[in-house]
Fold each of these.
Amino acid sequence: MTLFELVKLALDELYTEGKKEHGELLDDKIKEKISYLSDCYKELVNTKRQPVDYRDPATRFAYVLKYVATHGDYVVQALEELKIANKGTIFQSETARLTCIGGGPGSDVTGVIKYLSENKDEPLKKLTCYLLDGEQSWADTWTEIGDAISSDVAINVNFQPLDVTKPTSWASQKKFLRADLFTFIYFVSEVKSFDNSGVIGDFWEKIFTESDVGTNFLYVDNGHKEFNEFFDSFWRSRKDIQVLYEQDNQWTTPRYSEQSDHLGEYKSRFEQHPKMKSMITIRILKKIQ
Ligand SMILES: C[S@@+](CC[C@H](N)C(=O)[O-])C[C@H]1O[C@@H](n2cnc3c(N)ncnc32)[C@H](O)[C@@H]1O
């Protein structure tokens, strides 16, 4: 299955949810929300902006249609780099845990699943995923993905609400820290503007300090210097974090095997192509002591 085929499954479900809320007006709503998201993402560096609001199913449909498969493919490309850096496989045993911060829309988890389907030498038989996200309404979109795809790896997806700007939502949570791989995909750019008195730095301090030796961390974002420097400031001076791979601000496209035609009627109905080219920055880190 390609990422676009996986995304089509989620879109079908979101479309049904949207119909219940908007009825005949749904298609117009979705078009409106595609523009809304595009306008929001132009404003990410503006510290006075409002948070992007994903509650409406039309907004979530718009996000999944435009961005999820493409971001998922960037995850696959980054994981290939991690595999090269490891000079072997990414995972070392038959079971592993994945924690996706801001992973509600599913790009991170679908990217990891796609990577596993293409890399049969990985020893994994069972992957437990935690999608941590401030927007609860993402919860239903991907938790059944394990049932929807036939994979050699048993996939179990759990959603946990977590607002990075509210320490009460994460200070006492422990389970998500026990991950073999963390992903932060287009997340830092989304939350940096809301870094009231260093709270986001405190969050990463917890992750880097309390995670296990050997854990990998994957950051992909939109290439903007301000976000890269912000993320880098959390780990560059740490002796327990090593960088395995870094790439700054390169134009990237999904691999040729990913064809957006698999989005079927949605692509023509909304006269929209998914995002197919982006400037991205990648960091792949490892906890070494
Ligand atoms: C641009 S999306 C990125 C999603 C996904 N990782 C991807 O690459 O497609 C940003 C995600 O961060 C979530 N988010 C926004 N503010 C947040 C916060 N304060 N705490 C946790 N998650 C937040 C949103 O709900 C959304 O799912």
Note: The chain is about 40% helix and 20% strand.
Amino acid sequence: MTQADILIKNGIILAMDESMTLIPCGYVAVSGDRIVAMGEGEPDVGARRVIDARRCVVMPGLVNTHTHMTMMRGVCEDKLLMDWLEQICFPIDASLTPDDIRASALMCQAEMLLGGTTTFIDIYRHPGAVAEVAEKTGIRAVIAPQIIDHPAGAGETYASNKAFVDEWLGRCPGRVIPWYGVHAPYSCDWQTYKDCHDAALASGIGIHTHLAETEAEIDQIREEFGCSPFEKLAEIGAMSGRMLAAHCVHVDDRDMDIMAESGMKVAYNPSSNMKLASGVAPITKMLARGIVVGLGTDSNLSNNNVDMFEEMRVGAMLQKLATGDARALPAETVVRMATIEGARCLGLEKEIGSLEVGKKADLILVDMGKPHLWPTFTGGMQENVVAHLVYSASAADVRTTIVDGRILVDDEQLVDCDLNALFEYVQNAAVDLYSRAKRRMTK
Ligand SMILES: [Zn+2]
């Protein structure tokens, strides 16, 4: 009998591999940080910890391809995007200290782990604080500092980004990964894009940004430079497979050709785009061109949660509504976006995003025993597990979360975390931050 550290058995195994393997009753065994065995029926494996996954779907952990570690939730609602950004977000951003970010990161990472997200990419301030929290919580994190050239002081700089990369590249390899992060073309210089892109390439990492979120932004860039941001980035040599861009809502055929040719990846943020009335990203057209698209929640300021199940549901339904075609963005495609395609966006598809022997043990158990997820059909029936994950499930249905072979959520509870104490800490930090930011708010 093989010995493993963790054995998950009697579960519905949804591997999210190339052939979309679904085992109605199977097991996954984990040793160290890797999946060492998986299959059908009763395993010939012993383990220190056995988890009975009866009535649960066992699937890869979810990958959130765009978020910001902020604890400001519900404080700036129902505003135009530029007002939202200038009146609220920038004053808050400019007030942030590493302590604020520590509290934000603890809150967001707790929320993500409890909701089945095992990997995220953050683009925000004081990246070292986010990285230290991730090192401690055990979640897999890709961290891109958010460089803002204009207004100065509202974000990170190229120098602080480079220092962060130098410090963290290799400190917690494969689990806390530093990237370059450029906020957007309207707040940063093209040279910053070029410098970050080249530095990312040289370090074998990526660069994250926001592109083509609003029509006004595109108009402004066209007026000033006579082209779209995609054309400009291609022209200066800052467009490649290393680039992950959030939003990409206002793109035309030429832009999508550039995206496809360069291998640029896209983070689709349907809730944020709806809430800020930014528009609908033409995801079905992007997928038809072979562009890699992941799913992101964006921040608590524009969503207002990091529930990737909700994002899957909203994302699928928005594409159906926008295209007038109920077949658009089917459930299987959207679950792939939230898992293996998200991993591809981060260059991590060989390690995470699907359940396969040899891959990292980043996996979750989703409890299908709750009435809103009845009935479950597998085997000879019309399989409905994937549909349930997209159209019926929520973050609250996650029972277990494992990252890098460590159980971080066990029976719906964060392991080694006193949530009451964390609540007090975050609450006090948020009150303190908001009172400091308030002084900078003009309206
Ligand atoms: Zn964003």
Note: The domain at 2-60+359-414 is CATH 2.30.40.10 (Urease, subunit C; domain 1).
Amino acid sequence: MRLWGRRSAFNVQKALWTLGELGLSFEHVDAGGDAGGLDRPAFLAMNPHGRIPVLEDGDVVVWESHAIVRYLAARHAVGTLWPEDPAARSEADRWMDWSQTTLQPDFMALFWGYYRTPESQRNEQRIAAAAQSCAAHFEKLDAHLAGRRFVAGDSFTMGDVPAGTALHRYFEMGYLVPEPPHVRAWHARLAEREPFRTHVQRPFDELRGRLDF
Ligand SMILES: N[C@@H](CCC(=O)N[C@@H](CS)C(=O)NCC(=O)O)C(=O)O
């Protein structure tokens, strides 16, 4: 297996974390950011959108971070990361979709608006609006996590990966945000997992004030 994408990329981290959880061996290829290469014909033949991550598994090529997480879980972790029962799986699934469609756009607006934009170019109003939306989203997740250890119940599943990946940057980027107690406790639980520490809890200073990729 081969995973394409720079380790500092939020969406790549979801795939790396999942690969780590599954204990799979794979080749990592740096791509995107300073490494570039996303506009090469060979890369575009794998992902016509020219984005990372991309997973190659033999003849199978998967792009879109959540599709990669689902593919890996379905192939290698039936009954654990990929709950077997459709109802249980739908709980993991819905928080993944929620993360992609609801949390992530506002989280990206905050992270890009605040952290990745040089101070002199920041739009404080837009940043504050994005921060407020993120806080409201995390409040909803907080209410869901009350009485649960993980997003889909007592055990870790693929449902924890997308929103879990956002936490490190959300709390560590230096912008003052509320700290909902159940989200914080969940974050601490994720931080007990070695693949989360290795692939997600990484320094991200190289992205500060950089809008070029
Ligand atoms: N929806 C896609 C988004 C992919 C995406 O935008 N990836 C970013 C990195 S997080 C990228 O390719 N950026 C260009 C670069 O890093 O050079 C996914 O979830 O995989």
Note: The chain has a mean pLDDT of 98.
